[in-house]
Design brief:
The protein is elongated, with a radius of gyration of 29 Å. It has a three-stranded mixed β-sheet, with helices on both faces. Helix content is about 70%, strand content about 10%. The chain starts with a helix and ends in a 13-residue tail after the last helix. With about 180 residues, it is mostly helical.
């Protein structure tokens, strides 16, 4: 991850060296969005709600596991006295509980992830809006998120698109815009 960020920073700096003088005045910024989000009170509220939801899921899972354990205990204690049809019925019950537990765990993971996304989306949006506002106020052309290595802000009006210059360098006509499909 750090190599990617470093390579991106080197690429931006190297491309700035090839740009006209106006482009050299561009400023590059960085931020760790995870640190920003961790400091936000909205994140704490979302985290508290997520913990409560996770606790509900865990309680349901615990109840299902307790039911499973009770059925297994009953089976182990009484199976020697049961005929084959009762044993088969009890084994089917236990297997059914195992399947329900597995299905519940899978669904719970999906539900937890969805709830996390729902709760964190407005927090992330607010953080990135603040990053963009600060970047504009500071006159930055680019902001790199150190947490993801991605560019989180680009001021396209004040940056240089190198495509026309690279096309000219390679002798590609300026009118050519659609790459040819390789088959």
């Amino acid at each position: 991850m750090k190599k990617t960020i470093m390579l991106l920073a080197v690429a931006v700096i190297a491309s700035a060296a090839l740009m006209p003088t106006k482009a050299l005045a561009q400023k590059l910024g960085h931020i760790n969005s995870q640190e920003v989000v961790a400091l936000m009170s909205e994140r704490d509220d979302a985290y508290t709600k997520l913990q409560a939801f996770g606790k509900e899921l865990q309680e349901t899972l615990n109840s299902m596991q307790n039911d499973y354990q009770a059925k297994v205990k009953e089976y182990n204690e009484k199976s020697s006295t049961w005929n084959e049809s009762i044993k088969k019925t009890k084994e089917d019950e236990i297997n059914s509980i195992i399947q329900r537990i597995q299905q519940f765990q899978q669904q719970a993971e999906q539900d937890f992830s969805a709830r996390q996304n729902t709760l964190m989306e407005p927090v992330m949006k607010k953080a990135f809006e603040a990053i963009e506002k600060v970047a504009k106020a500071q006159g930055l052309a680019y902001v790199i998120d150190l947490a993801s290595g991605a560019l989180v802000y680009i001021d396209e009006a004040n940056t240089v698109n190198l495509l026309p210059l690279v096309k000219a360098e390679l002798g590609i006509p300026a009118s050519k815009t659609q790459p040819t499909q390789i088959q």
